[in-house]
Amino acid sequence: MGSNALWFNSHGGQNTALGYFALYRNYSGNYNTAVGYNSLTTDFPSSGNNVYNAALGWEAGYDIENNDQNTFLGAKSNSTILSGALNTTAIGYNSKTTANNQIRIGNSSITSIGGFTGWTNISDGRFKNNIKENVHGLDFILNLRPVTYHLSVNDISALLEEDKLKSESKDEKIKNTIEKDKQVRLQKEEITYTGFIAQEVEKLANEIGFDFSGIDKPQNEKSLWGLRYAEFVVPLVKAVQEQQVMIENLIRENEMLNENQAAFQNENKALRADFGQLSTELKALKEMVLNKVDISGKLK
Hints:
The protein has helices at residues 138-141, 153-159, 164-168, 172-189, 198-207, 233-291; strands at 16-18, 33-35, 54-56, 71-73, 78-79, 89-91, 96-97, 103-105, 147-149, 193-195, 215-216, 226-227. It is α/β, with parallel strands linked by helices.
């Protein structure tokens, strides 16, 4: 439904297209759903075989190539992978995925993502194999470098090509939104963040031989480094446990020192008593000696 929707479709089946130029260049792709102007418009014919994709929004999933199992929800939501994006989800206006098996919510201008409960990671012991207690603690935590920083948001936006389609548009209203977006990004660049630098965390982990799952490494030149801060809880717990062992050892050592001090005090008290007894005996002996000597110094 829509002018030029599924226009070049020749061999593709089980597709749904709603909107001007929706799935326009799809040639043999199957099981796709496109709703919106220029949504899931693919390069014909080399990449017209995309399958299991869904797009909703103006130019959502525009010009994807050989991409499968992707979901684009929002105007200009897309993937920056030029070819072969697999199992990605971009949610929100101008949101971009940059690697396979990735979900992105929002664009570079977003300053808050939240809800009314914490994110839940699947943690079912029935499906965890090769379990080892080899998490690093203090040697990792004590060598992290906490910093404050500002994000170069416009540079990130340029890397993700967030303004590319808008700058190519002939619609002045669309072009005018570029400056608005840039101003929003400039405001975000004024925010002071606290955290770590992903490359430094990876270097530290490699130096101590820690295969740390909290680092999200880029898969290509369009991907960004990232950190999963929730993962830092595990080495923090390990560090606290290691510190607790040290504290308990110090407590035992202190108790031993206190016991030794008490024994020393008892011995010192006994020695003082012996010394007092000895002094008394020496005094008595002195008197006995003096009583045996007369004034002239002669023995009685």
